[in-house]
C-alpha cells in the first residue's frame, strides 16, 4: 500500500476511534451525572412526606416521564414504568405543572387509571405527585415528577405537599448543575475535535501535499519515460484520492452545533493568547447559552479578541479570565485582567481606542451595550451584552 494511502487510512482510523471513545465517554458521564443528581431524591421524598414509598420519574422526551428511582417499593411493577402526559397522577402533573394528590389512587375520579394494576400490586392508596421545575429563558418547564405514596388509610396534607416541593426544588438545582457540567463536557469534546482537526491538517495534510508536489515535479522532468510516467500518474491519482478522504475526515471533525460554536471559539482565543504571551487565560462558561445568529456570534467573538488584544498591549496582566453566560435575558462576554491600564484610558465612547469604539457602535445597532471598567485596585474588565433577539 502506498504511504499516501496508509496516511489517509490512519487519519480515518483516528477519526473513527475518537468518535467512538468520545461517544462512549460522553454518554456514560451524562447518565452518571443524572443518577448522582436524582438517586437520593426518592428516599428524601419518602422521609420528608412521612410516606411509605417515594419515587421519581425522569422526563424522557417532550411528552412522557419514566419512573427510574424508587424507595420503599415491594415489587418491580413501577420500575421503568413510562408515564405519558395526561395519564395517571404523574401524567396529570406533566400536563399542568402543578401538584396533584388523591386519597385513594384506584378510585380517584380526577385521574385516569391505566396504572391501577401496578399500584394495586404495591398496595398503595393515597398518592401525591409534584413537578420538578427548572426555569430557562423565562419559561418554567417540568423536567421530572416526584411521587410520595401511602399504604393503608391516610392522606397527604398541605405540609406534606410543601415538604415534597422542597425536595423537588433541591432536585431541580442538582439537575441544573448536572446539565451545566454536561454542557462543559460537550464544549470540551468539541474543542478536542478541533485540535485534532488542526493536527491532522498540519501533519498528514502537509505530507500529502508534499508527496503530490514531488510527483508532479518528477512527471515534468521525465516526460520521455512512458512506463515511469504512467506509474507516477497512478501515484498522483492515489495521492489525490487520499487528500480527498482527508478533507472529508477534517470536515466531519469540524462539525459542531451552532450553540457550541461560540464557547469553542472563545476557548481557542484564550489558548492562542496564552501561547502567544505566556499569560494564563481561561474561559469560564456560566451555564448554557442560547443559540445566536451569525452576526451576534461574530460580534461577541470579536469583542473577546479585542479585549485580549488590549490586555496584551497595555495592561501587563498576570492572568486573564474570559466569561460567557446569560445576563438580563441576553448573552454577555467579559474579559477581565488584573493588570494596570494605561493612564487616560476611558469608556468606549469617550476617546478609547478605535477598535473599542467600533465594537460599541456594532453592539448598539443590535440593541446591546459595551462597558470598559477599570478597578480601583487594579485590573480592567471589558463587557459586551447582546440581546438574544431584537
Automatic annotation (TrEMBL):
It comes from the Bacteria. The keyword Kinase applies. Keywords: Kinase, Transferase, Two-component regulatory system. Residues 33-185 form the GAF domain. This is GAF domain-containing protein.
